[in-house]
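Field log, afternoon session.

UNIT: design team B
ACTIVITY: writing a sequence onto a fixed backbone
BACKBONE:
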C-alpha cells in the first residue's frame, strides 16, 4: 500500500505487516467499548444490528505523553478528554461483509504505518494520527459486519483554553450511511502510483 502526498507529488510505500488482532482500545489513555444492544432494523432492505459506542481518549496520553509535542501544545492537552458516543448499525450477513472485515484490519495497519512514517519524518511532515483516533477512520471491528449507518457525537471535556474554545463551537456529529454495496473486483490499475509522483523511502 502507498501513502500519496499531493502537495509535493510523492508516494511512500507502507509496511502493513503486523498483528491483525491488535486493538486500539488497549492503548493507554483510551477507554473504548462497542456493545451490542440487541436492537435490529432494516436499512435499505438489509437487516442490521445496533452496537452502542462509547470512547474516551486522554489527549495527552494518546499523543505520547506530550514527548513528541512542543511544551505549549503538550500543556494545552493536559486534562483534556475527547468523548465519542453513538451507535453503529452493522449488517453481518450482508454481501461483502467478510471482505470488509479484511479491509478494516488492513486499514488499521495502514493508519499505524502512516503515523509511524510521519513521526520519523520529523516536524516538517503532517501531524500523525494520535493512537486510537484511527478507529474513527477505520471503523470499530467489534461491530461485526458492514456499518450501514454510523452516528457518532464527539465533544471535548476538561479544563483549559482549548476546551473552552471547542465547547463554544459545540459538539461535532459524524454520520455515515451506506447506500449500496458492490462485490465486483476493483480494477488493479486503481492501485498504481499516479503519473508525476516520485516514490520516496
Amino acid at each position: 500500500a502507498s501513502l500519496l502526498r499531493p502537495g509535493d507529488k510523492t508516494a511512500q510505500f507502507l509496511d502493513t505487516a503486523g498483528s491483525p488482532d491488535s486493538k486500539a482500545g488497549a492503548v493507554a489513555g483510551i477507554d473504548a467499548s462497542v456493545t451490542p444492544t440487541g436492537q435490529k432494523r432494516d436499512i435499505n432492505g438489509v437487516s442490521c444490528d445496533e452496537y452502542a459506542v462509547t470512547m474516551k481518549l486522554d489527549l495527552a496520553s494518546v499523543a505520547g505523553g506530550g514527548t513528541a509535542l512542543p511544551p505549549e501544545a503538550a500543556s494545552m492537552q493536559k486534562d483534556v478528554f475527547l468523548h465519542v458516543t453513538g451507535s453503529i448499525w452493522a449488517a453481518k450477513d450482508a454481501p461483502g461483509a467478510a471482505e470488509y472485515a479484511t479491509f478494516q484490519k488492513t486499514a488499521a495497519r495502514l493508519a499505524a504505518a502512516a503515523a509511524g512514517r510521519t513521526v520519523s519524518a520529523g516536524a516538517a511532515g503532517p501531524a500523525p494520527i494520535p493512537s486510537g483516533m484511527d478507529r474513527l477512520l477505520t471503523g470499530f471491528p467489534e461491530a461485526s459486519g458492514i456499518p450501514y449507518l454510523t452516528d457518532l457525537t464527539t465533544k471535548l471535556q476538561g479544563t483549559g483554553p482549548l476546551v473552552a474554545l471547542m465547547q463554544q463551537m459545540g459538539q461535532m456529529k459524524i454520520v455515515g450511511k451506506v447506500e449500496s454495496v458492490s462485490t465486483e473486483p476493483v480494477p488493479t490499475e486503481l492501485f498504481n502510483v499516479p503519473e508525476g509522483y516520485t516514490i520516496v523511502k
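LOG NOTE: DSSP finds five helices and eight strands in the chain.
NEXT ACTIVITY: expression trials, pending approval
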